[in-house]
Amino acid sequence: MLTFLLWLILLVLCAPLAILALVLYPIVWLLLLPFRLVGIAVDGVFSLLGAIIAWPAKLVRKATS
User: Does residue 55 carry a pLDDT above 80?
Assistant: First the structure.
């Protein structure tokens, strides 16, 4: 009987949290989407700068080999 009561308490405590998580997850995802897009853009800019800086070294390495 005690186990059953513990399961009921767990159900009462966790079910609203699970429903709240299901409702809030898409909203939080939409709020964080611009930051993710900015991160992708910044990563692309840094990759481009790295490629531009490394390009002369690649040319010298190809010319010497």
Answer: yes
